[in-house]
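Predict structure. Chain length: 300.
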Amino acid sequence: MRYELTDLRVFVAIAEAKSLTGGASDLHLTAPSASYRLKNLEQAMGVPLFVRTQKGMSLTAAGMTVLRYAQTILGNVERLQAEMRRHTDGVEGRIRVYANSSTLSSLPGALSRFLAAYPNVNVNLEEHLSEETVKAVLDGRADIGLVAGAIEMRGLQYISYGQDELVFIVPPRHPLTLHPRVSLETALSHDLVAIGRKSSNFLYLQQMAEQMGLKPRVRVHAPNFDAVLRCVQEGAGISLVPRSVAAPALAQHKVECVQIEESWALREQRAVMRDQDALPGYARAFIGYVTQPDETLDDD
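Prediction complete.
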């Protein structure tokens, strides 16, 4: 059985996008190039890996098995490359961190203090939904995950370190402010200002809405939370954001806040990892900076 790592990368990208075109785009390949790579891998495996339908690409049972091992293989290759770079560019270590929008919004202080204390450690930080973050830690694609909400930990170790609440921010004197709490269905009857289409914040809102058979009426996908807050302030629509993000604008009365009735809006923040004791000292220190932000922590 002979295949190339590029074939595995293309296969994983297609599986995650559930689309040959989407997977090719994520890897900056043409669709014919991605199709060629996929055919090579299927020939090497001797079985079809996808069922091709009008709605996209679905994994076969064999494809699910290949995906599980391919993610582990590619994760190990990433770790090997990172370790080799330590010998060539003087960097002592790297930490791969996946986080959702809520945990990202509270991360800058702890992250900046950690980077100042560990000048020879780099942090590769990516935004993902909490469910994807847990899966990435489990598969070895991430060393540490920062998640929020009622997420199944799948046997991973975790440390609870905070709590945040998703709220709808609205322009001053908006009709929704007549109610202290509103349902998601009521809120989504209004025009929405959302952050980027691929942000974990918007994907989570979309996921909650789909479960209720709703579709958000998005007027604009703003590039960051500052832009979202400004659009809401000017009356462009309402937006779902972590309360911690909205706090400065709320304190200055630029926007108003409406709580959400559904229980998923109040979310526990947790740092997750496979085995904390097996992590390098600097990675354990990073967890300390995130989970105990008011303390000075050192590598033991």
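Summary: Residues 24 and 244 are 37 Å apart (CA to CA).
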